[in-house]
User: What shape does this take?
Amino acid sequence: MLELLVAIYAGICWLLIKKFKLIPWTFTTQVVVYSLPIFGSIALILSLNYYCPITSDVKVGNRSVDITTQVLGKVKKVYVNTNQEVKKGDTLFVLDREPYVQEIKSLEAKLSNMKATVNSYNTDISASRKNIAGLQSQLDLANKRVAQYQELVEAGAANKFDLEQAITNVRDLQSRISAAQSQQQSLETKSNASYGGENSSVSEIQAKLDQAKWNLSQTVVLAPTDGIIPNVQLNEGAIMAPFKSAFVLIQKQQSVIGFFAQNELESVKNGNEVELALKTEPGKVVKAKLEYVIDATSQGIMNNAGGMLGGNGSTAGLPDTARQLPETDGKLIAKFVLVDEQKQLTVGARGTAVIYSDHIKPLHLIRKVMVRISSKINFLIPKLH
Assistant: This one.
């Protein structure tokens, strides 16, 4: 573009000086003619770089989601293929349900038996109380007989053997009452043991049953979001372990970012017009807007010990450009949003971007021509083989 302007300038000078001789070719004229394009080019380049910053380091990226399972199982059926587009909630693949169905049936039977057992505790406790009451009545009667025999023995109307038999009977009844009370206490402990207002044994089996039902639901793996699956190598019969990646789902939401020198973005603001010339879109100019500038890099963030993280550190929310792309060390990231939100760009596409500030808008024309030339150049493939 600069060469074109110089050529136009040279043509105008030739017409004015040589062709029509409207300006005399003096020493002063020569100094002006030769100096003007030099200083003009410098001023133009500086103005363009400040008010219409450009970068050839643009990257298109999509967030990805690892598709994993929460449970262990054998793959029963795969419903997606390579490069297939999916919607949120679509079935991707299913695992064999039978082991989890059988586990649920087993736990349901255990739960039913445990509830019946808990219900029987009340019947057993009631019977135990009646038994203790009957034994207590017999003990009261036996104590009266012991008192009577003691009086008779003292009066010489009964022998000591009958008294000893009566005392033995009292001790036997006391022992039976003690055993019955222990049994009753054990039944009451089992019956009263609760968690959340429910018998603890029942609660434990119910929790296992709920977990088994959740495990069963996880045998159907659904798409967590809209996107495309670029590569499917999962086969039926494969064993999937929990949290093992089956394949990757690339989300539709794209991020377009450009890397700029730290002094290039002083004149721009959010919402400024942006034009992109991507290698995957030769001959086309993609319209966008500046969403925001991340005015920080991880190279300038201190860790808790007071040291600089540098290119090897990572700070939440800040781009570690040096670690990911060594050639962008220390640069700021500008994030763009496409004007056509439905347009999908090639993931990983690279190219050129220009941000048009609100200052000196005639400069926009020069940058727009440069971007369009760059987009045409993308048709060229400079390879010798």
Q: What stands out?
A: DSSP finds seven helices and 14 strands in the chain. The CA atoms of residues 194 and 200 lie 4 Å apart. The helical segments are 2-19, 27-51, 98-155, 160-192, 200-217, 321-324, 362-377. The first strand starts at residue 54 and ends at 68.
